Structure formats: structure tokens, C-alpha cells
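So, does this match?
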Amino acid sequence: MQLRKNKKWGVYFLLICLGYFSNGQGYYEHPVNGVGDQWHRVDLPVEAFGRLHRSYASIRILGKNENNKPVEQPYLLVKDQPRTIMKPVPSTIINQTRKGTDYYFTFEISDEPTLSRINLDFENDDFDWKVLLEGSTNQKEWFTILEDYRIVALPGKYRFTRLDFDPVNFPFLRVKIKSQEKPILNAVTINSAAVTSGEYVDWPVDSIRHQPVPNSKNSELTIHLGKVVPVSYLKINPSVDYDYYRNFSVRFLKDSLKTETGWREQWMNAGSGTLSSFGNNVFPVDEKLTSKIKIIIQNQDNQMLDIPTVEVKGARHYLLARFDGKPPYTLQYGNRQLSYPVYDLISFKKNIPEKPAVVQLGKAVYKKGTNPDAGTPLFSNSLWLYALMGLIILVLGGFTISMIKNTKEQ
């Protein structure tokens, strides 16, 4: 038994060492066609994400210098997606009135920005109300912004009191709530919204599987994407006709390791949230490269939700590159030995044209061996290489002697 154990660890050590040496020994290369100006946009192909090893550090654009030697062309990596920037605006509660079971709250906005969100802070902790939101320029004529908008508070569990609406511009806003209980409004926060330019890329979903987690009250929603892509947006679409709220956590597949018993998956946490019948169930997450998503839903004693579809999106990735060299130009990525490049370009973003022409990429070619022009290998000094090889020989020799001794004892 000990002999087998030693042999097993010896093989593992050798594989680790071989893996370390082979790490980064290869890269992918695309010809860059259509370079006619100093500045161009280079769109990253979808297949590149699965070859970046969860890092964008290996991306390089190469051209030729005056001596016909390879030289790096500086670039700026852009992750382009729409972002909504919320900014609180000065506002005052100027009226709180009642007519029968209708309660009115009127707000005055000091400036006149474009408004898009209101957060209501009620002292009440148990309610389910319908809201009418109106806007006015003179408090005489009111225009409907939201109607039958639902806000909810479950004691000690869940609260949804945010009003989201299309951008409007009114100096006065009014909220009407029909309730048998008096709503006690502690504070209100009114926000202006600025949406940055950009667009999401929709990633097709290969398959969805929702099943209970054994020996727990949770269920697991597994989403297969079929390829590695950058994910920063999830919209979960339960198909049920009753109210619900469920806490959940999101995990992204980081890597898979093949072992003697099969594939072992490594996961990373990507965020958490609450599914509810009151919100839109849209969840921005910190961007990660992944091919598989796992959502753990806490159902408590409730039945699992029917979730037939999930929308998965990510930012559009491209490079804004300055071509100062001579052709031919190539885009390279996948060399694990490279660290992130540092270009002066990052300090002079304002000098980059807004919409440079997009170049075309040729077919990717895999090239063995580390590209000497794109970075310096860790063991470029042969002394380090010989030292590590000697260490490997000593360790393997020790395992061999141990095995011979065990054989004699047996």
C-alpha cells in the first residue's frame, strides 16, 4: 500500500512539474487586415475568451519597426456595456395629505434634472400597496408616470419600495397610496439617471437544468453556455402565477480538472440577490469569464420555481489600438507567461478618436512555443532551468529509493 502511495505522489509531482514547464508554451495569432490609419478598433473574437486563461494579460498587437523587428502596438482594452449612473437630487416633502383611504405625498425637486428613480423609506414594516406616481409643473395639472406599481414589505424578511420609471422632467412629483393603514414616510430619495453609451452582447444558452439539492431546502439552476464568454448581466425569468421571494447566490465555473474519478469543477462566487414577483429580476454581476453558471436558490419550505428561461449578457470587448509600426500586423493571445502590458496610452485616453475604423482579423493559427517577441520566459536563464531539473531528479530519485526499500521489506 505504501509503495502505491509513494508511486502515486511521484507521478503527481512529475505531472505538476511538466505542467509548470508547459504552461504558456503556445499562443494564438490572427493576421490584422485593413490597417489604413493610425488608430483602429480591433474586436476580440468570441473564441478568444476561452483561450485567455481567465485573464486578458496575454493580449498583444505586433507590427514591425524600421529595422523589420517585431514591436508592440499599444492598445486600450474597452469593455463596453450600458451603465446607469444614479445621482441623488435635492428634494423636499412639501405635502402629506389624505382623502378617505387615499394618502398623497408631494415632493418638490430643487433643480430640474431628468428623474428616473425614487426610493421610499416607510416606517411601516408590513404592507402590500399599489402606487400611483404623477408629475406636474404647477401642482394643478398632473400627468401619470406609474400606475398600479406594487411596493411590498415583509416583516424582517424583504422590502421592495423602489420606483423605477422612464426618464421624466418635472419640478413636482406626487405619490398616491390606497391603504387602510396610514403610510408613515420617513424619507425619500429621488435620483437622476444618466445611461452611458454601450451595448450588451446576448450570449445564447445551450441548456438549463433546475433540480433540488439533496438533503437541503435549496434548488440548483445550472446554465450551460457551451463556450467561455464574459458575463456581467443575468435576467432570471420564473414562470409562476403566485407571489414569491427567494434569496439566491450565483457561482461561475472557473476551471475543470480531470482526476481519476472524473472531472472536478472549481467554482467562484459571483454575487447574490433576491428573486421576487415584485421586481424585474435583473441582476448585474461583476464580470467573469465562464462557460457555466450555477444559481443556488433558497426555497425554504416552498416548491421550486418554474424557470424556463434565463437571459445571459456581457460587455462587448474590443481594443482601441495605435498602429505606429509597419505591416504585417498580428493580434496574439494565450501566452500564459505574459503579464499585463503597461502603455502610456492609458494616461492619454482623450487623444483617442471616438469612432476609429474597425479592422478585420484573419483566421486564428495556434503556434507552439513561447513567442520571444511578446515577452520574456520565466526561465530564460538556463541556470534556473538546470536547478529545477536537478531538484526534480533528486525528488524522483528519493521516491525510487523509497520504493526499492518497500519492495525489499515486502
Q: What stands out?
A: The chain has a mean pLDDT of 86. The two ends are 10 Å apart (CA to CA). The longest helix spans residues 382-409. The CA atoms of residues 230 and 289 lie 4 Å apart.
